[in-house]
Amino acid sequence: MRRLPSALAALALAASAGAGAAPAPDKGGFTLLHPTPTALLRELTTDRPDTTESPITVDAGHFQLEMSFVDYSRSRRRGGGRAEGTALFPFLLKVGVTNRVDFQIGFDPYVIGHESEPGERSSNSHGVGDTTLRVKFNLWGNDGPEPGFGKTSLGLMPFLKVPTAARDIGNGKVEGGLIVPFGVELPAGFSLSLMAEGDLVRDAANRRYGFEFVHTASLGRPLFSGLRGYVEYVGIAPQRTGSGYRALFSTGLTYALGKNAQLDAGVRVGLSRSADDFNAFAGISFRY
After folding, report:
1. Collapsing DSSP states into helix, strand and coil, what is residue 69?
2. Which of 182, 187, 208, 249 has its CA 20 to 30 A from that of 153?
3. For residue range 155-198, what is the model confidence (pLDDT) as tens digits?
4. Which of 138, 71, 43 is nearest to 99 (CA)?
């Protein structure tokens, strides 16, 4: 993890060539209590629908809600078992604290689970999910190219999971970690987003803490008239959790409803045995 910033800085220098855009207006004086004027708001940027988070924060004094209408997952288990999960209206609420910092609360209002094993009675569960608290710090690139960094952006986002889930939904334990998102604008309208994440999580038996290293790469591009598509690789490398490496492929679309709202939909498909077989989701994001 300590080597990541220097590697990203090298990418930043490589991307800085030709970044001759006019300097962005100084918005450092705006805060939660002194909001950024509407005319100076940056382009709407969300942390959904892909797994890769964005380094860009919400403008100071503004709120952004990112929500799924439904999020469905399905996985097979050894021996022929099957598990399904459906989250209804899970959301992430963000508030801009300063020009480079926002605070976020994520919550799953209602989760439904179903598990079945051959020769045994199936089990069902339902109830509220866990709560996640996050703080995103943008280090550079929030408002476009900055001297020495070109068309790149970098952020840091520590997070904490608070165990608010029903007993048969969550593990009842505090978990957390650190997310490092990086973005770079490429020729021909393409953009590349990379993410490294270290998570302290409970093991499969919920007996001790282990570690997971999440690494992702998402390539996106505008298609036409407000429509944008992406493809993504997600890898999760566990240590002392009782689980194997999880690899997933994801793809989806976003559609801009204006400057402050966006629809999205996508799917993830497991590429390894330990990963969920299938995950589908659709949602909306809007800023005010």
Report:
1. strand
2. 249
3. 999 999 999 998 889 999 999 999 999 999 999 999 999 999 99
4. 138
* Cα–Cα distance measured from residue 182 to residue 194, given in angstroms and rounded to the nearest whole number: 5
Torsion angles phi and psi, residue 7, rounded to 5: -65, -40
- Please give the pLDDT value at position 5: 47
Cα–Cα distance between 215 and 123 in angstroms, integer? 33
Distance CA(48)–CA(71), nearest Å, equals 12
How confident is the model over 65-77, as pLDDT tens digits? Answer: 999 999 999 998 7
Residue 237 vs residues 31, 160, 217, 288: alpha-carbon distances, Å: 38, 20, 15, 37
Residue written as token pair 């629908």 = 49
At 13, the pLDDT band (50, 70, 90 cuts) reads very low
Q: What's domain 4-20+32-287's architecture?
A: Beta Barrel (2.40)
What are the extents of the domains in the chain? 4-20+32-287
